[in-house]
Write a structure and sequence with these properties.
The structure is a homodimer. By secondary structure, chain A is of the alpha/beta class. Chain A folds into 3 domains: 90 residues, Orthogonal Bundle (Arc Repressor Mutant, subunit A), CATH 1.10.10; 100 residues, 3-Layer(aba) Sandwich (D-Maltodextrin-Binding Protein, domain 2), CATH 3.40.190; 103 residues, 3-Layer(aba) Sandwich (D-Maltodextrin-Binding Protein, domain 2), CATH 3.40.190.10. Helices cover 43% and strands 21% of the residues of chain A. The first copy, chain A, contains 11 helices and 11 strands. In chain A, the strands form 3 sheets. In chain A, strands 3, 4, 5, 6, 9, 10 and 11 form a 7-stranded mixed sheet that branches. In chain A, helix 5 links the parallel strand 3 and strand 4. Chain A is rod-shaped and about 105 Å long. The N and C termini of chain A lie far apart (75 Å). The interface between A and B is large, with 37 and 37 residues. Chain B binds a DNA duplex through helix 3.
Chain lengths: 308, 308
DNA sequence: AATAACAATTCAGGAAAATTTAATGTCGGA
DNA sequence: TCCGACATTAAATTTTCCTGAATTGTTATT
């Protein structure tokens, strides 16, 4: 059988032009060539295929042979494939299509899915993957390029990242409503330090913040810590009376509103921090990533839980 | 948007090879080229598309960019289109696919459809069109190339055709069973000439044959003719007692067997003629036509009606 | 029937493109 | 830090492609 390797798009385009104009001269005009050039292309194709592709028509003009009609069909299919490819690439260039991996810290999982859902509605041809991990894991993923854009609290010194604040992020200490410190106007530092703290594992942003906070108000005084792997577990533990915990208010909005947890009026609380969106300094953002970035910067505030 | 006109199959094939080997050198080996050649092709494509298509992979080797993946998809689609086209053309070359117009004289319509049906079962990718006309019309169509292959009695002197006999074709004179000449061992020429003849129109092969037969046995004596446009009408007319008719035995097999018509034992009857398959001498047969020709020559005998 | 008009086809020469060889740059692994 | 493999660039060469001119063939016209 004749080999596919000898076929060129020029040949197919020549066939198409001849089919439409019924003349080599006309085809040449369409293609911006001279008739001999078109003729050569057709001849070359006929050589490869081992059969005629065009022939003189009944009265006048050139018409496709049955084989030529098959070639024309193929040409049309090829054309569609290539056009579709170009369109998709074009969409990519404009940031309307592509794939973006979004990494968020555990705490953000209470609002990030809502952002992603809205994002997918707005930019339907961008495939967004949401990865959740603790602060350390997300940063590591950012370095390894397995995450393109991240959302977390305070951006790190290392690795070097580009970051932008996107909204307030209050941190509170929560206790069960029947806790003895609950409802007090002012809770003394020592009273706080006496409690058992339920905290996330090392590498968690909340854990780091908590340690620094307790060291500051307690001036280095020791305190007791119980470690748990997820915010959800911590909430349940606090409700169950195992201890108190520093936690993102966004994580416990529902429980505070329902009265299943209360925020303690300990010194400096709530700590008003910010949410940041960030990406690795070295990573050249694709248009799709830029679209996602912009969307997050402009719209994420709508998704932060609030007590009111 | 980047223009489709700048894309070549060489470029697509280069992308494909790189995708499979993860290296320009490897791709070059696959394509029987040197690495710079492949590199140039990729560069050219990237110019047209306005974006990178391949890039150095994480560790080593070359990988496709997301845009490159789209190009690869397109390449695969193009490949199947072209392969399918080549396969179809190949089938055409082998006479396994194509389009053939078969022209048959009216008389042959009593067995031609059966041939076509069997033909389509055997050569399922050949599209067969069956056209029915009288002898003159079929010959005209043969000249005009609107019929590729024809089946009829005696091939004409003009136009020049290639012909081959495919089976016996007895002509008889039929009468109603209660006709006074019916059942006689030997019917005299004069008794025949006295009858009213129901005949097809001018241009019909049967008509020509009848005229020559009657002139021969009657030595020029006149006779009476009534003209009717189809064999079916003639049969009904004879059954109704309007007259007698010379007709192909194949046309009246059913009626003879059932006794609704009888063949007269007039001189020289039945006239043993042949069926012929034929095509215009000037027309180069396509492989598909050759397949059909061969099928008819080898198989048509199975479809002739017989009295036994 | 001769001829004019037009389009396909052939061909030679030259332009453009593709490919190769050779040289250079770059990265990962010993 | 050197070595080797490979990508990349540059320059030279080969191949392909295109054009313009000439030729052939066909159709329409006189």
């Amino acid at each position: 059988m004749s080999d596919i390797a000898g076929i060129t798009l020029k040949q197919l385009r020549a066939v198409d032009a001849v089919a439409r104009t019924h003349s080599i001269t006309g085809a040449a005009r369409e293609l911006g060539l001279t008739p001999p050039a078109v003729h050569t292309q057709l001849k070359g194709l006929e050589d490869v295929l081992g059969c005629r592709v065009v022939a003189k028509g009944e009265k006048s003009g050139m018409v496709l042979t049955p084989e030529g009609e098959l070639v024309l069909q193929a040409q049309r299919a090829v054309d569609v494939s290539l056009k579709s490819c170009l369109n998709q690439i074009d969409a990519m260039k404009k940031g309307l299509a592509g794939r973006v991996v979004l990494g968020v810290v555990s705490t953000a999982k209470y609002f990030a899915p809502a952002i992603v859902a809205e994002l997918k509605k707005t930019l339907e041809n961008i495939e967004v993957q949401l990865n959740v991990g603790n602060r350390g894991e997300v940063l590591q993923a950012l370095v390894e390029r397995s995450v393109d854009i991240a959302i977390m609290g305070r951006p790190p010194r290392q690795p070097a990242v580009v970051s932008k604040p996107i909204g307030m992020h209050p941190m509170v200490i929560v206790a069960p409503p029947d806790h003895r410190l609950a409802g007090l106007d002012r809770v003394a530092p020592d009273a706080v330090l006496d409690q058992t703290f339920i905290a996330r594992e090392e590498g968690s942003g909340t854990r780091i913040l908590m340690v620094r906070y307790l060291d500051r108000i307690g001036e280095g005084k020791p305190y007791e810590t119980v470690e748990m792997g997820s915010n959800e577990t911590i909430k349940q533990a606090v409700i169950a009376g195992l201890g108190i915990a520093m936690i993102s208010q966004h994580t416990v909005t529902e429980e505070l509103r329902a009265g299943r947890l209360v925020a303690l009026n300990a010194p400096e609380l709530p700590i008003e921090r910010q949410w940041y969106v960030l990406h690795h300094e070295k990573l050249e953002l694709t248009p799709a990533m830029r679209s996602v970035w912009r969307f997050i910067v402009e719209n994420s505030h709508r998704f932060f839980p609030s007590l009111e």
